[in-house]
């Protein structure tokens, strides 16, 4: 394994954080890092088809104001090498191997959507590695409607192509004027970085990740009572991708869980309410 020789500069924002590569068992993984170098690191895991440029810079910068934040690309996605896994379990093992290769020790972990599936599996597979867990826009294995993500998404992806809009405009936000305004602002934030942008996910990797999501939705439920660390669960109250009742299910089944639902918000509720989410997440991490 090899690590870039120049240490990350903690003064930069996510907009200009350099993309770095760490080789783990022959596969390079792309990541960006910012924030203070002391304290427990916070690792970020993103959604289906997401690359580094799909992390909301307002959320990353807000969290990095007090925490060392590391955002990563999954195997086979963006700047990371290899072939995208077709199971959440494989993604979790990649994440654990990457954490250990970085020499992180114990971490805090934040997973959005698919990233929330992976984060749950990481905690169940290696509970000693995670101190606190944040699950957003996500649900448990076998959760309601998760195996239908593709069927829900394809018509809105097509609508995005026909209207020349990013499909997240329809998939992540409700149809209200307030939510659509937030969608426009979020999508503009994703364009703020103009240099050293990540490679988009390939169609093949996109489809392989969808197989992993569908399999997660059809998987037998896990014993979430084994998650014995504090967990913050956040979502919009009108998520159509990973239906909002899954968030309540997680909160009911995880012993030390706190649930936050944002009003008139969809799958991307944390992006619509980015300032409130950063406030809630920092209070949780620092409590």
Task: Please outline what is shown here.
The chain has helices at 57-64, 88-101, 114-125, 149-163, 168-171, 177-189, 203-218, 245-253, 269-272, 274-286; strands spanning 20-24, 27-34, 42-45, 69-72, 107-112, 130-136, 231-236, 257-262.
Order of helices and strands: EEEHEHEHEHHHHEHEHH
Largest sheet: 8 strands, mixed
Q: Low-confidence segments, ≥5 residues, pLDDT <50?
A: 1-11
Question: Which class do the helix and strand fractions yield?
Answer: alpha/beta
Mean pLDDT: 95
Radius of gyration from the CA trace? 17 Å
CATH H-level homologous superfamily name: Alpha/Beta hydrolase fold, catalytic domain
Strand content: 15-25%
Terminal CA distance reads 35 Å
Annotation field: number of helices: 10
CATH uppermost class: Alpha Beta
Number of strands: 8
Helix content class: 25-40%
**CATH architecture name:** 3-Layer(aba) Sandwich
Globular, elongated, flat, extended or rod-shaped: what is the shape? globular
Q: Give the spatial strand order of the biggest sheet.
A: 1-2-4-3-5-6-7-8
Stated plainly, the CATH topology is called Rossmann fold
């Amino acid at each position: 394994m090899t690590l870039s020789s120049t240490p990350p500069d903690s003064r930069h924002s996510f907009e200009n954080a350099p993309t770095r590569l760490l080789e783990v068992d022959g596969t390079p993984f792309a990541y960006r890092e910012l924030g203070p170098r002391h304290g427990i690191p916070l690792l970020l895991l993103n959604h289906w088809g997401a690359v580094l440029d799909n992390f909301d810079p307002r959320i990353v910068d807000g969290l990095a104001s007090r925490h060392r934040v590391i955002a990563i690309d999954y195997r086979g996605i963006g700047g990371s090498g290899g072939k995208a896994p077709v199971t959440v379990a494989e993604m979790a093992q990649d994440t654990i191997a990457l954490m250990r290769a970085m020499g992180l020790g114990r971490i805090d972990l934040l997973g959005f959507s698919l990233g929330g599936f992976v984060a749950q599996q990481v905690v169940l597979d290696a509970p000693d590695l995670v101190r606190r867990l944040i699950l957003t826009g996500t649900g448990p294995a076998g959760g309601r409607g998760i195996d239908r993500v593709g069927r829900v998404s394809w018509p809105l992806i097509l609508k995005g192509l026909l209207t020349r809009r990013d499909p997240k405009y329809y998939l992540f936000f409700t149809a209200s004027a307030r939510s659509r305004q937030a969608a426009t602002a979020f999508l503009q934030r994703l364009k703020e970085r103009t240099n050293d942008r990540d490679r988009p996910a390939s169609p093949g990797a996109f489809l392989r990740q969808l197989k992993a999501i569908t399999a997660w939705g059809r998987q037998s439920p896990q014993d979430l009572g084994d998650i014995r660390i504090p967990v913050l669960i956040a979502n919009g109250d009108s998520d159509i991708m990973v239906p909002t009742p899954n968030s309540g299910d997680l909160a009911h089944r995880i012993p030390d869980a706190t649930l936050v639902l944002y009003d008139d918000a969809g799958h991307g509720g944390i992006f619509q309410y980015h300032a409130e989410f950063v406030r809630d997440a920092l209070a949780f991490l620092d409590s």
